[in-house]
Amino acid sequence: MEVFFVTSLKILILLNPFAVLSTFLSLTSGCTPHQRLEVGLKSGFAVLIAGIVLFFSGNVLFSLLDINLDLFKVGGGVILMICAVSLVWGESRPGRVRSGASVSGSGIAVVPIAIPMAVGPGTTAGLIVIGLERGDLWSTVSSLSALLLSVLALTGLLLLGVHAERVLKKDGIAVITKLTGLFLSAIAAKMILEGIRNTLA
């Protein structure tokens, strides 16, 4: 059970929830509550599908590219570290879009909110590594359940976005986003060090 919650927390951090929330609030600023609800639900579904695909695609990708898990940990860890640094130092956000047909459709729910804001290069690397490290059937089910819980938490945060913005304000969201970046950098450092150690062993 402890492993399940640790994996859930790790995946949630990889998804950069407060950075995604910041983008979500910016892009849907002119939307009705119903449109925001629709975009939030579609974003969560897109993140879940992308996460499951990445979770199971590691072996296929490694076979095609002729690399192993340790090499990927080093490369993926570097990408994850860059993402963490961008969160800590701040990064530009996509501009606002007007409400309308593009918002009511899959439009911004998939790109850019789900991909690449939630599932970017660093998250991709992290999910592939978690998928490759799974063991027996119980471990696989536990990891997938952790992914589902993390996505539900992210989706819930988006759906409560307006209230979160009122409580935390923009400065509060910015502070939490930077803290998320610090934790993300620790995950990246662990991936890099493990990859180097196993490669040189």
What does this structure look like?
This protein has 201 residues and is mainly alpha-helical. The chain has one domain. It is built from nine helices and no strands. The protein is globular.
Which percent range fits the helix content? over 70%
Strand content: under 5%
What value does the average pLDDT take?
85
- The gross shape turns out to be globular
Poorly predicted tracts of residues: 92-105
> From N to C, what is the helix and strand string?
HHHHHHHHH
What is the radius of gyration? 17 Å
Number of domains: 1
Number of strands: 0
The largest sheet, given as strand count, sense and whether it forms a barrel, is: none
Distance between the termini: 31 Å
Structural class: mainly alpha
Query: How many helices does DSSP assign?
Result: 9
